[in-house]
Amino acid sequence: VIETLAFWLLFLTFVGAFAAQVSRRVRIIAAAPDGFSLDHLPFRIRRFVVDVLLQVRTIRERPAAGVMHALVFWGFVAFGGYTLTEFLYGLGIVDLTHTAWFHAYRGILAPFAAAVLVGILFLLVRRAFIRPVGLGTHVSIESIVIALFIATLMITFLLTFRLPEETMAERVNWWAHMLVILAFMALIPASKHFHLVLSPITVFLKSPELGNLPNLDFEKEQVGLETVKDLGSKMRLDAFTCVECGRCQVNCPAWGAGKELNPKAIVLRTQDALLAGETGRKLGDVYTEKELWQCTTCGACENQCPVGIEHLPILIGSRRGLVSNGEAPSYLGAMYNNLERRSNIWGLGYDQRTKFIQSAALETFDSAKHDVMVWLGCAGSFDADFQKSLRSLFEILTAHGVKFGVLAKERCNGDPAKRTGNEYMFQELATGNIEDLKAAGVKKILTSCPHCVKTIGSDYRKFGYEVEIVHSSVFVEELTRTRSAALSGPRETLTFHDPCYLGRYAGKVDEPRALITRFGGTIAEPERNRDNPYCCGAGGGLLFADKEEEPGTRISDVRFKQLQATGAQTVVTACPFCSIMLKGAQASAGAETQFVDLMTFVNGKLKKTAPAAMPSEGL
Amino acid sequence: VILVIAEQRGGKVNRASWETIAAAQQMGEDLAILVPGANAGTAAAELAAAQAKEVVTLEHAALEPYTPDGFTAAMQAAIGQLSPMYVLLPHTYQTRDFAPKLAARMDRAIITDVTAVKKSGADVAFVRPMFQGKLTADVVPQGDAPHFVTFQIGAFRVDQAAKGTSPAPVRALTVNVDAGAIRQKPEAPFQQAKQAVDLSQAERIVSVGRGIKEQANIQVAEQLAQAIGAEIAASRPICDAGWLPMERQVGSSGQTVAPKLYLALGISGAIQHLVGMKGANTIVAINKDPDAPIFEVADYGIVGDLFEVVPAIIEAVKG
C-alpha cells in the first residue's frame, strides 16, 4: 500500500511536469493565426507508413545510424503495452503482470530489448565520440543522459528474467525501471526528444507538396511573416519537433558553400523565440536578413528532414514580410523592375522573343491543330545560348511528327517573384498567364525549364488552374523509346547535373538518365545527385545576386568542383539557369569542361542515326 | 500671370527649372518665377537673367530642410498672394513628392510629365505621354485657376529660355506657416556610397571576358582602352577571379552601361552579361567562336584571335 501511494505521488509529480510543459507548447501552437491542413489524405497515410513506421527517410541518407534508430523506434513501439501494464500495476489499478499473455508478450519483447540496447549504444558512441558535424559542435549532455536512460530501461527489463519475484533486488529493479520512465517523461518536452511524441504528427501534417507556399490573400491584408506572432501552426509545431539531426544543415548548399544560412539554426531559433514569448519580435531580427536571402529554395532541407519539418514556408514567408516592407536586397529591386516593366527577368523587349519565333519558324498555338504548346520561358525567349537547346527540341519534335505551337505572348511564370517573397508581383504574372493559357485552350504544356514546370504545374493550381506540364526530358524520353539500337561507336562518359526543380521537386531522375544512356553516354554520377542534388546557386533569385551580396564561396563554384571530380569532360544540363551558373563557374575556374544541354545532346545523336519512322498520329 | 516654381539647392538652380522657364515663355503670358528655400537670394540673382516680369524669393524655416508638409503649406500661401493662372514646375523627384498634394489641397487640376505646349488663341493644351509613351494626349485643365502643370525633364531646352535685356526685379515674399503642422522629421541627408568607377557615364568601354585567358593579358585590353580613351570593364568570371575589381563588372549582377561604343573582347555573351550592355549604341565583338551568343547582339563581329586583332586595332588608331 505504501509503495502504491508513493508511486501515485511520483506519478502525479512527473506526469504533471510533463503535462505542464506540453500544454505550454500546445497553447503556443494554438495561438497561431492559421490551422492545419489535412488535404490529400491517402498520400499522408502512405507517407506516414513509409517515413514513420518504416523509418525510410531516417535510414535513406544515413543507413547505419538510421537502422540503429529504427531498432530503437520499433523497440519503443513494441514496449508500449508493457509500460502501460506496469503502470496499471504500479498504480494499483489492475495487476495483469501475472497473466499468461503478459508472460508471452515479455518473451517477445526480449529480442526487441536487445535490439534497442545495440541501437542506443551505437548512437551514444556516434554522438559522444564520432561526433558528425550535423549534430553540432559540442556534445549534448542531455542526449547522453537520455541515451543512458534508454539503456537502463532495457537492462532493467532484461534483468526481470533473472531476478526472482518478491525479492528486494526485484523491487529495486522495478522501481529503477519505473523511475527512469517518469524522469524521461518530465525531461522530453523541453528537449529534442520531444520528437518522440511530435514527429509522427508533424510528418502526417507536412504538406504533400515540397515548398508549399499558399497564396497571400491581399483582400485580407496578408503581407507575409513579419513578426513571431505571424508564424503559422505548422511552423510552430515544426520548431518543437526538430530533432537536431542536422540533415537539413549538411544538405544545404548555402551552408556547404560557407554562408551564414543553416536551416537547422533557423528552426531552433524559431523555437527559442516562441518559448521566450517574443511575439512582437521581427523575424528579420530572429533570423538575420542575410541568412534569409541566402536560400536558393533548392528544397534539400525540407526534403531530407526525417521529422516532417517544412523550412521553405518560414524562409520564404519571412522574405515576403521583408519585401512587403521594402527591405529586399537592391539586386532584386532591379529584377522586380524588369518583371514589372517588361514581364521578364532580363528587362528585354518582347520583340526579341518575336524575332526568335520567326527565325525558328514557330507556329502560334492553335488547340485544333497542335498536340502540345511549348512554353519558352524567360530563358527560351531571350537567351541565345539556351535557344540553341530549344532549336534542338523543335527539331526532335518535328522529326517525330509532334505538332506544336507557342503562345503569341508570354510573361515570366513568376517563379523568381514567388521564391523571393514578392507575392504581389507573382500573382500579377500568374493570373495574366493563366488568362492567356485558358484563352488559348492549352491542355498540355511542354517546357525545357524546370522552374516553369514547378510554378505553372503546382503554384498555378492555387488559383484553381490545372494543366498538364511536362519537362522536355520526360517528353522526349517517351518519344524516342524506339530509337535506341542504331548507335555505334564507343560510349562517351558524361556527367549529369540534376536541376533541383526537376530531380527534387518533380522527382524526374530516371528520364534524363535514360536519354543519356540510350544515346551513347555513360553517366559518371557526381556526389549529390538524383532527388538530392546540390544546387547550382541560381534559385530563389540568387541568379541576380552580385558577389558582395553572396559572401563565402559561390554555390556554383562548389557544385562545379563536384561535377569536375567525376572526371567527365562534359556536363549535361537540363535547366537554363543551372547552365548559366555552371558555365560561369567553369569560366571562373578556367576549366576546359564542356557543357551540353540534354536536348542538344539527344538531337545531335539522333541526327547521326537513321531517321525515325513517322508515327501515324501525334502523341 | 504664369508662375514657375524653380528648384534650387544651396543657391544653385537646377537645369530642369530653366527648362520649365523655357516652356512657360512659350505660353507667352506675364511670367513670375518663385524660388523657395534657403539661399533663394543667390538663386534669384541667377534667375533674374531670364525674360520675366519678376523673381520672387521665399525663405522660411518651414522650407529648410525640405518636407512635403512644409513645402505644401508655404507654396499654398505664396500662390494665394501671387494668384497666378498657371503654376508650372519641373517634374523632379521633389515636385513629384509635394505637387500632387499641393494641387489636392487647393482642389485644383494638375497635369504631370508634360512634354509640349499647344497654344491656339487663348486655349492652351498640354501634351503628355500615356501607356508608357505609346500614345500622347492633349490635356486641357478644367475648373478654376490656378492650374498646375509639371514638365518632363529634357522636354524643353535650356538654351530656348529667353534672357531679358536687363535683370528682372527681385522681391522677397513672406508667408505664415504653422510649424506644428509639419509631420515629417527628416534625418540628415546621405548620399549612397558612389561607385568608385561609374561605368554608366562612360562613352566608350573596352570589356574583357574569359577569352583573355590570363590576368597578365589584361594589359592588352588596357592598351586598347588607352588608345581610344575608353574605360575598362569585364564580365563576371574576370571579376570573380579577381583579375579586375568588382566595380568594373558589367551585367545583371554588376553595372548596367550604355556607352556609344562597346568593345567586347573574348566575351561569349552569356545572357546576364548581355542585359548589362544591351543599351550600347554600337557593339563590336571579337571572339574566336563564331557561335558565341555575343554575335547575336553585335553590330560588328570579328571572328578571330583577340591577341592578333587588338594590336592591329591599336596600330590603326595610333597610325
Notes on the structure:
The complex is a heterodimer of chains A (619) and B (319). Chain A has 619 residues and is mainly alpha-helical. Chain A has helices spanning 2-30, 41-53, 56-61, 63-90, 100-130, 141-159, 168-187, 195-205, 233-241, 247-251, 253-256, 263-275, 283-286, 289-293, 300-304, 312-324, 330-342, 351-359, 377-382, 384-399, 415-419, 423-439, 450-459, 472-479, 500-504, 510-518, 555-564, 576-589, 598-608; strands spanning 372-375, 404-405, 444-447, 468-471, 492-496, 521-523, 570-573, 594-597. Chain A has a 4-stranded parallel beta sheet. A 4-stranded parallel beta sheet of chain A has the order 6-5-7-8. Chain A has 29 helices and 8 strands. In chain A, helix 5 (100-130) runs antiparallel to helix 6 and helix 9 packs across helix 12. Chain B is built from 9 helices and 17 strands. The relative contact order of chain B is 0.11. The chains are: A mainly alpha (619), B alpha/beta (319). Chains A and B meet through helix 17, helix 20 and helix 28 of A and helix 6 and helix 7 of B.
Give the tags.
heterodimer; A: 619 residues; mainly alpha; four-stranded parallel β-sheet; 29 helices; disordered C terminus; B: 319 residues; alpha/beta; seven-stranded parallel β-sheet; five-stranded parallel β-sheet; 28% helix; elongated
Blueprint of the fold:
The complex is a heterodimer of chains A (619) and B (319).
Chain A: H1 2-30, H2 41-53, H3 56-61, H4 63-90, H5 100-130, H6 141-159, H7 168-187, H8 195-205, H9 233-241, H10 247-251, H11 253-256, H12 263-275, H13 283-286, H14 289-293, H15 300-304, H16 312-324, H17 330-342, H18 351-359, E1 372-375, H19 377-382, H20 384-399, E2 404-405, H21 415-419, H22 423-439, E3 444-447, H23 450-459, E4 468-471, H24 472-479, E5 492-496, H25 500-504, H26 510-518, E6 521-523, H27 555-564, E7 570-573, H28 576-589, E8 594-597, H29 598-608
Parallel strand pairs in A: 1-2, 1-3, 3-4, 5-6, 5-7, 7-8
Helix pairs in contact in A: 1-7, 1-9, 2-8, 4-5, 5-6, 6-7, 8-9, 9-12, 20-29, 24-26, 27-28
Chain B: E1 2-5, E2 8-9, E3 12-13, H1 15-27, E4 31-36, H2 40-47, E5 54-58, H3 68-82, E6 86-90, H4 93-106, E7 110-114, E8 116-120, E9 123-130, E10 135-139, E11 147-151, E12 170-173, E13 204-208, H5 218-228, E14 231-234, H6 236-240, E15 261-265, H7 271-277, E16 282-287, H8 294-297, E17 300-303, H9 306-318
Parallel strand pairs in B: 1-4, 1-6, 4-5, 5-12, 6-11, 7-11, 13-14, 13-15, 15-16, 16-17
Antiparallel strand pairs in B: 2-3, 8-9, 9-10
Helix pairs in contact in B: 3-4, 5-9
